Amino acid sequence: MKTYDVVIIGGGPGGYNAAIRAGQLGMSVACVEGRATLGGTCLNVGCMPSKALLHASELYEAAVGSEFANLGIEVTPTLNLAQMMKQKDESVTGLTKGIEFLFRKNKVDWIKGWGQLDGVGKVKVTADDGSVTELAAKDIVIATGSEPTPLPGVTIDNQRIIDSTGALALPGVPKHLVVIGAGVIGLELGSVWRRLGSQVTVIEYLDRICPGTDEETAKTLQRCLAKQGMTFKLGSKVTQATPSADSVSLTLEPAAGGGAETIEADYVLVAIGRRPYTKGLGLETVGLETDKRGMLSNQHHASGVPGIWVIGDVTSGPMLAHKAEDEAVACIERIKGHPHEVNYNLIPGVIYTRPELASVGKTEEQLKAEGRAYKVGKFPFTANSRAKINHETEGFAKVLADATTDEVLGVHLVGPSVSEMIGEFCVAMEFSASAEDIALTCHPHPTRSEALRQAAMNVEGMAMQI
């Protein structure tokens, strides 16, 4: 049995960042991961490969549609799906190899296999060949992540009824792709295949897309995606899916009750969310139990059992890689005896469609529910110089500020490259900035970021470019 200061179960964004930070702090650390590559869902079959396909499909659509022609670029594009998938895989491999390098650099041992608790302070690792390695540590961090949530009546076989992993590796462009779930994963992967030529129908149980986001922002994104050709069936539930050799027959009904209808599709993507992954983790050996959502509770990343810590998708909070990274650092710092906090009020969210949606802080709906008086400043990208000359004017920037103190409470953006701009407000809000602080800060011209300043100015009706 080999002994470490810290053993981390899971090599995703939470796990590998925790391992690296522990190594930086001089701790002996092992990271247990059973995949052939490090990086977890995010790097292997989530964030990174989906972004590779989103980028490639955007360029393809620009070339095959009217965008290039309007710019005076005349081409006759041909889709080489195999090469598109190949470059995606090569990008992912480069990233996962990068984590291996960082492990070596920071003296982190990668224990290859599937880890499970074997009592307090002990982890048993089973390799693919069946061999077992036993580890001991004063502190153990559970960072096992999440898996796609199944849908009753719809059995995922990754042949015709697929999850997000299957949607990243389809052998051809579907004529008709049905996406169940209008959240981040469904909209992003639906966008990829629509751009490549699929008819895409999105079915959502709720009466809106992007649950949890600012409602006005979500409605704007829906209009943009519908204009591009994506069809939405909101307030609908799928009750049955029957696959055949080359298609799927779906039965759906209004969520509020009513007559059923049938839809035929080449493929069905189930993207109704994710659930914590705790299968075979040996929680019973230390007396830990999940809640009704399958999550492990934590108090400042500590579980109810001394020496066992919990971070990332397997516990409460948004299932986002950057949230897991923040928790990873905070958890290791606390293990080391250092004070550290994660500000859960300022974790940004992004949907990488085109236009993108990015937000941080409170939504208007949340502020109204709290009874908090607030002011709104908005600025449309139609009035932004850089957006206009780039022909990407859909969307707006919206700033919500306290009616009395002017402190920025929430920011909601839908438009071009807003994923790269939301960080400005994350920093500002971390320092409790006012809308006036942003309004008085010089921004470079011409940039899309000027829309953020103009929205902040417009909290007091001072926007000069509308």
Automatic annotation (TrEMBL):
- Segments forming domain FAD/NAD(P)-binding: 4-328
Identify the SUPFAM superfamilies for this entry: FAD/NAD(P)-binding domain, FAD/NAD-linked reductases, dimerisation (C-terminal) domain
Which Gene3D superfamilies does this UniProt record tie to the protein?
3.30.390.30, FAD/NAD(P)-binding domain
Per UniProt, residues of the Pyridine nucleotide-disulphide oxidoreductase dimerisation domain are: 347-456
User: What does the note accompanying the cofactor annotation read?
Assistant: Binds 1 FAD per subunit.
- Tell me where in or outside the cell this protein is found: Cytoplasm
Single GO term (MF)? dihydrolipoyl dehydrogenase (NADH) activity
Cofactor(s) for this protein? FAD
Ranges annotated as spanning the membrane? none
Q: What is its EC number?
A: 1.8.1.4
Record's catalysed reaction(s) = N(6)-[(R)-dihydrolipoyl]-L-lysyl-[protein] + NAD(+) = N(6)-[(R)-lipoyl]-L-lysyl-[protein] + NADH + H(+)
Q: Which InterPro entries match?
A: Class-I_Pyr_Nuc-Dis_Oxidored, FAD/NAD-bd_sf, FAD/NAD-binding_dom, FAD/NAD-linked_Rdtase_dimer_sf, Lipoamide_DH, Pyr_nuc-diS_OxRdtase, Pyr_nucl-diS_OxRdtase_dimer, Pyr_OxRdtase_I_AS
Give the keywords, sorted.
Cytoplasm, Disulfide bond, FAD, Flavoprotein, NAD, Oxidoreductase, Redox-active center
**In which domain of life is the source organism classified?**
Bacteria
Query: What other facts are recorded?
Result: The active site is a redox-active disulfide bond.
Q: Which family does it belong to?
A: Belongs to the class-I pyridine nucleotide-disulfide oxidoreductase family.
Q: How does it assemble?
A: Homodimer.
Q: Which NCBIfam families match?
A: lipoamide_DH (TIGR01350)
Q: What is this protein called?
A: Dihydrolipoyl dehydrogenase
Q: Which species does this protein come from?
A: Pseudomonas fontis
